[in-house]
Amino acid sequence: MKKKVLVIDDEVHIVKIIQYKLKLDGYEVLCALSGEEGLKIAYKDTPDIILLDIMMPTMNGYEVLDQLKKNENTKNIPVIMVTAKNQEADMLKAELLGIVEYITKPFSPQAVLETVKKFIGSP
Q: Which of 24, 25, 63, 112 is the most exposed place for a label (fewest CB within 10 A)?
C-alpha cells in the first residue's frame, strides 16, 4: 500500500508543486486548501505524514497542529511545517507543539521529498 502524504496549504501553486514531486516518487498525495479541510481529511484518511503551512485564513497551522495532537487517531502522525515564517519564535512555537521538521519557503521540492523520506521512508 502506498504511503499517504497530506499537504495542507492555502496556496494552490505550492500544493501542486509538492503534489507533483511526491506523486512522481510514488506517494499517494492528499491535498487540502484550508486547515478545516485538512483536519477532515486527516481524521478520515489517517495519512502517514502531514505537510502543513502556518499562515492560512480562518484556521492557521498552529491551530490545525493543536487539533491533530489532541486527537487519538492523529496525534502520532509526523507533521512537517512548510511555511514562509522564518522567525526563530515561529520555529520554537511549532517545535513545542510537536512538529518533526521545519521547512521555510521558498523551498526545493527535492528537499521536501528527502524530508518526507527521512520520516516515513520510501513509498
A: 24
* Domain CATH code at residue 32: 3.40.50.2300
Helix runs in the chain, H state only: 12-24, 35-45, 61-70, 88-96, 109-120
- pLDDT, one tens digit per residue, over 66-114 is 999 999 999 999 999 999 999 999 999 999 999 999 999 999 999 999 9
pLDDT at 18: 98
Query: For the chain, how many structural domains are there in total?
Result: 1
What domain range includes position 66?
A: 4-116
123 within domain boundaries: no
Residue 7 in 3-state DSSP? strand
Predicted local confidence at residue 60, as pLDDT = 97
Distances (CA, A) of 78 to 12, 13, 57: 22, 23, 23
